[in-house]
Amino acid sequence: MRDRVRRSVLAALAVAAFAALGFAGPSAAEDKIKVVATTGMIADAARQVGGDLVTVKALMGPGVDPHAYRQTRTDIAAMTKADLVLWHGLYLEAQMEDFMGDLAKKRNVVAVGESLSKNLLLSHDDYQDKHDPHVWMNPNLWSKVVIAARDALSKTRPEAAETFKANAEAHLADVARLANYASKVLSSVPVESRVLLTAHDAFNYFGSAYGFEVMGIQGISTESEAGLNRIAELVDMLVARDIRAVFVESSVSDRNIRALVEGAAAKGHKVVIGGELFSDAMGEDGTYEGTYLGMIDHNTTTITRALGGQAPARGMQDKLSAGS
């Protein structure tokens, strides 16, 4: 009897020890939904909505251009093993279109950007059969992508739908505050200064939402070439309209923007680089700018201050990195 009690106690202690070490059955990590997202913006939406119930891998990190990105073997392995793959669509990940179409026939794959009604999307003269994919530049439009991510997660794990709904509502409230902040500070930019010139045409939704004239040296895709004639035309425009600030992008070479600055200087007109904007990728992982809220807060604050408006140096939540 005493031996049986002793063995029971030892067995109980062993189970407790194994549990403490994480060996008692499936771990919490194994029970999480494995999500793979193409862009950092989509990955952030999945994390915000999924919370503790998801693990999220972003294929494209800071400074990576989604227009030119091609899936690697590691990416393919991750996507085929994932419970859910979220990509943008709208021809943003142009080099991955065929692969995603094939993968969607076998796996749980959702193009969250294509959830938006066509009447909300902008077309472009250079791409008659396609829409501008850069919808994240307007927080009110991005909120609809967050909802698409919520629905995809809820379909993947229906029993957690209420949790995903609550998480999405909290995040959408933050996105709404961001939209209000952007409207407020950008309205302080003098009307004649509301010209945003960047490396490629990624800011048309921004311009449409906040009343800015937007110009890109390249087209919607960074794969398009910027000819010398285009740069010469823009230099003449900078001089004629007395525009004094242009912007570089974190995921696009600054070569063409610097050519504009030098071209204007050759004509006696001083143009400065007003700052680096996040266009197709967010900031560094682990930073405020490495979240959707921080990305757009940074862009909005940088544009406002560079073009003569009033905005707090560290942005909406006083979280922007010093000098960002």
Strand order of the largest sheet: 2-1-3-4
Instruction: State Rg.
Output: 24 Å
Helix content: 40-55%
Number of strands: 10
CATH architecture of the largest domain: 3-Layer(aba) Sandwich
Note the main sheet: 4 strands, parallel
Give the N-to-C terminal Cα separation: 72 Å
Mean pLDDT: 89
The share of residues in extended strands comes to 5-15%
Number of domains: 2
How would you sum up this structure, described in words?
With 324 residues, the chain is of the alpha/beta class. The protein has two domains: 28-183, 3-Layer(aba) Sandwich (Rossmann fold), CATH 3.40.50.1980; 190-306, Rossmann fold. It is 44% helix and 15% strand. It has eleven helices and ten strands. It has helices at residues 2-20, 28-31, 40-50, 73-81, 97-103, 139-156, 161-186, 204-210, 228-240, 255-266, 292-306; strands at 33-37, 54-58, 84-87, 109-111, 123-124, 127-131, 195-200, 213-218, 245-249, 272-277. The strands form four sheets. Strands 2-1-3-4 form a four-stranded parallel β-sheet, with helices on both faces. The protein has a two-stranded antiparallel ribbon with strand order 5-6. Strand 7 (195-200), helix 8 and strand 8 form a beta-alpha-beta unit. Helix 7 (161-186) packs parallel to helix 11. It is globular, with a radius of gyration of 24 Å. The termini are far apart. Mean pLDDT is 89; it is low at 1-26.
